[in-house]
Amino acid sequence: MSFAFGVVLFALGILVSVSLHEAGHMLTAKAFGMKVTRYFVGFGPTIFSFKRGETEYGLKGIPLGGFCKIVGMTPQDDDVEPGDEKRAMWRYPVWKRTIVMSAGSVTHFGLAIFAAWLAAMTFGLPNPDFPRDEQQIRAEPAVIAIQDCVLPDTTFRECTESDAASPAGAAGLQNGDRITSINGTPINNYGELLTTLRATTPGSTAAIGYERDGQPGTTTTTLATTKRPPIDNPDGPVTEVSALGVGLVLSTPGLVSYGPVEAVGATSTFIGDMAVATAQALQRLPEKIPALWNAIVGGERDIDTPISVVGASVLGGEAVANNAWEIFIMLFISLNFFIGVFNLLPLLPLDGGHIAIAWFERARSWLYARLRRPDPGRVDYFKLMPFTYVVILIGGVFTLLTITADVVNPITLFPK
Question: Cross-referenced Gene3D superfamilies, in alphabetical order (predicted)?
Answer without folding.
Answer: 2.30.42.10
